[in-house]
Model the fold of this input.
Amino acid sequence: MPQQHSGLLLRRHSAGSGNQISPNCHKSAVSVPYAEFLFPIAGVVLQDSLPELHQLELLLRHAPAPVSAEILAMVNAGEQQFPLYAVAVGKPAAGKPVLLLTGGIHGLERIGTQVLLAYLESLCSRLRWDLQFAELFERVQLYILPLLNPGGMLRGWRSNARHVDLMRNAPQDCTEGAAFLVGGQRYSKFLPWYRGHPGQFETESRVLCDFVRQRLFQAPFSLVLDCHSGFGQTDRLWFPYAKSSTQPIAHLAQMHRLRELLFQTYPHQNYIFEPQCRHYLCHGDLWDYLFDQSLLAQHLMLPLTLEMGSWNWVRKNPFQLLRSHGLFHPVKPHRVKRVLRSHLILFEFLLQAAAAHVHWLPTVDSRNAMEANDLWYNR
Ligand SMILES: [Zn+2]
Done:
């Protein structure tokens, strides 16, 4: 049953089989304070252990319309359970394009969740006074899944609480020589980049895939940005495939046009825009898998991964390597603030680009296809 909460619609949702919310959760929902409402089984309040989750809940508690949220599933992490939140801005409607922002799928990369929370905070504030901005959500549907791996983030692991690297968990293999270990492995769950059992989705992966199928594939067009950190010195925008360096995606022309649009609209931006395969190949990438699924559904989806250039933070402050998440997260407060504000323009651009997709997407465009091949594949 939906729970109305300070203008925010919170409802529990079962995203597929095997993911039922305990009846105890529902019973507790009407009788305990807010934080315990979310963690009725463990009775855990996470202010000290998972501040990102606490921050998200505070934001949602005071979020204005048309922001709503739901819990897609609860995931187990040892004795505890954590919610996987989906935030929606706008009401879904036939014919509406979608922007999906995701983060925190690698638990070590907390900054991915934090940039999305910074955007959500800014967005909630703006919705209260900027009527033009509020009207935008009548033309575009925004979803944010800011914390997809709370169990891993709690432990400070890249993987989830079951040791599975969710970005190696999709049921497809690279046949061109995936990078040793880092490309995904099934030797042991005690080594990093473990793929999990063959053909078995982890709860977090399955929830994400179900969500994309159910909410995006019905739309006429969708853009996705999945926020990560930990690679290189420059912020990068990667697109599929991670499984092949010889096979371009079917929508290469559209992806090239999106790059062109970004670079023309913001000529002084600093992103490198490229296919992931230019750096390494891997098995089981969820965006490779979902992109292929979108083709089967005849849906036009352009998925991007934001790889924030964390090596730059390490170069400026080598001592942060002494911390467990030091390779993946800025430590100095001024550097965190800089990162939190530096991607807001990108999020805004993607929102406007999704809303106005009919005005820039190429229909039959051999120029973009040729330029894309020259830029990324014919070397
Ligand atoms: Zn990552």
Observations:
- The chain has one domain: 13-376.
- The first helix runs from residue 23 to 29.
- Residues 106, 109, 228, 230 surround zinc ion (CB under 6 Å).
